Amino acid sequence: MVGVSGEPATFDPTPSSVGTGLAAVAALVTVGSLVGVLHGAVLAAVGAVAIPVAVQSGSRRAHAVAASFLFAGATVAGIAGVDPVHLLVAVASAIVAWDAGQHAIGVGTQLGRAASTWRVELAHTAGSLAVASAVGVVAYAAFTGVSAQQTIVVVVLVLAALLLTWLLDR
Amino acid sequence: MSYSIPHTARVTGLLDGTHDPSENAIAVGETRERKTRRWYGVTVFALIALGLGLILTTPSLLLASALGLAFTAYGRVTAPPPSSLSIDRTVSDPDPEPGDVVRITVRVRNDASRPIFDCRVIDGVPSSVSVVEGSPRHGTVLRSGGETEFTYAIEATRGDHVFDPALVVARDASGATERTTAVEATTSVSCTPRLPADPVSIPVRSQLTRYTGRVTSETDGPGIEFSAVREYRRGDAFNRIDWNRTARTGELATVEYRTERAASVVLLVDARASTYRSAGVRSVSAFESESGSDLDPDPDPDSNTPSGSQSALERSVEAARTAAASLFSAGHGVGLMAMSPHGCWIPPARADDHRVRIRNALATHDAFSPISPTDSFDTQSFRQALHKRVSEDAQIIVFSPLCDDYVAQTTIRLDARRQRVTVISPDPTTDDSPGHQLARIDRALRVTSVRSRGIPVVDWTHGTSLEQAVARTKRRWSA
Predict the structure, then answer these.
(1) Where are the transmembrane segments (chain B) (predicted)?
(2) A140, B122, B216, B395: most buried by Cβ count inside 10 Å?
(3) ipTM value of the model?
């Protein structure tokens, strides 16, 4: 892992309990908001159980797999026709669970368990949560403003967002 | 007499474990920027949800997709973090004794006009000391002009320890861009152990200089210890005439004493890479040390850390410090020479400032650095230098674990040149494996062969005090 000279050989890269806890709570919120759709909730629950274990293991890949269960649960519930508000909350919290977990693993490998890192982790997750809330509210407002027949308008909007993303990537 | 300050902070494995370490070295002032690509997973989900939403004409999935895409954009629009920071270290005791716990307080300030949402600091702890309390790493949020402080403790070991630049990893709020930079803050901890005040007396052999000292010589003259009474010769001092005898016999007689002379002693410390091993953790085997540094070109720095048992070199230096104190207090001239790729040579002298010179050299000279030398040691040129520098009337005390034949041969050659040599040998061997047992027997044979030439060898076994070892050797030689 990170080798800084002079430190004891027992550098512990395990992510902090703060980051792990944030990811776990976010994952539970996903499960809670999907309770209405059984198979979606079950898929998300698998992810919610796996996320703290994966974060503590320090493996980004394991965490990505665990988080993909949350996203899969949300997608399945979305197909099954869950209420859009619940779906938005589920996706937003799944993103926060992904973000907090990845961040905790990164902080763990760079700073180790012995370092004080809670400020960084709380601030980072608070930022992500704020963005998720703001975007969620705006998206929901736009969604309710457009009737179901005008799906084509939504498609055009989403494609515009994609184009914007691609342009920003330049 | 200090290490040069390294220009780079080591960030091995920080960015990606597979990278070449040299790619990860960052110069002070240089900033390296990296895209973390940490939102790619969310983007993938957003695209899948978008596709499914379009195929199955499920509007709520498009809604979910929009949320995911928003986070992709979040990663794109956040500005890279500022990386202008300053670091200030406070050391609780810049001049500690070995074994003291030194507290280091690091203050980090954000000099930029924007906040750093994610600031990770890894302090450049010198590789020669180990952290015993707290962590030299810290993560925090720094507003513009904001400061943070963290404290950790190191255990002082012999030597000059210069801190490396601290490494700062800053990320923007979304974490999409990471900037790594090295920040200089000149700090050093200098641990110079004193020469012991009441040292074990190290025996000196009977090869003396013409200066008055404390070693009783073979020649008669003025002194304290009675030697003989002889007939008065014209010019003898009045105070040496034996008046009692003169009164009895009527003839003048003169008392002779043994003259006391000083010796000139060169302490020769074996500080080659092979002496950096310690008993217990990784003990010396004859096979390892004979093939020299190529088997172990870059010894694991952890094996050199003083936690655990002391290395043979550390014990040699300790013995040399005791010997220097003992010889100085007996009025002898003391010189110092290192058997190391980093040459160290201090000619023998007796002055007070010389005592300080020897003390400082033993503590902080490159040759005795706690990090083992990587340069190869030229045996031929060392022997030439030794013969050139050490005068014939000086005697030599060799401090070496005697782990290979080179030192034993050098000692025997010196003896053959009628130089008086004593060997003080910290025993680094253990018997926990057949290889180690063999190395131990090899070393014992070497000790015997040196002793068979009449050269005193103080065999200082692990776990005993130097005093005991010296006493045992004195008995052997007086018997």
Answers:
(1) 42-74
(2) B122
(3) 0.86
3-class DSSP state of B265: strand
- Please report residues of A whose CB lies closer than 8 A to that of B54: 155
Alpha helix segments (H runs only) across B285-370: 286-290, 301-304, 312-329, 352-364
* Segment holding B222, helix H or strand E: strand B212-231
Q: Where are the domains of chain B?
A: 8-32+80-191, 40-77, 218-261, 264-478
Q: Rounded distance, CA B403 to CA B405, Å?
A: 7
CATH 2.60.40.10 fits B8-32+80-191, yes or no: yes
Question: Please, what CATH class does the domain formed by B264-478 belong to?
Answer: alpha beta
Cα–Cα nearest to A138, from B289, B274, B70, B351: B70
pLDDT of residue B282: 41
Residue B314 contacts A where some CB pair is shorter than 8 Å: no
The pTM (predicted TM-score) of the whole model is 0.73
When CB atoms are compared, the residue of A67, A117, A124 closest to B41 is A67
| Angle, vertex CA A110, rays to CA A121 and CA B162, nearest 5 | 125
Q: Side-chain half-sphere of B451: how many Cα atoms within 13 Å? A: 15
Handedness of CA A44, A46, A48, A51 (dihedral sign): negative
Contact state of B125 with A5 under an 8 Å Cβ cutoff = yes
DSSP letters for B149-213? EEEEEEE--SEEEEPEEEEEEEE-TTS-EEEEEEE----EEEE-PPPPSSPPPPP--S---SSEE
**pLDDT, tens only, B350-360:** 888 888 899 88
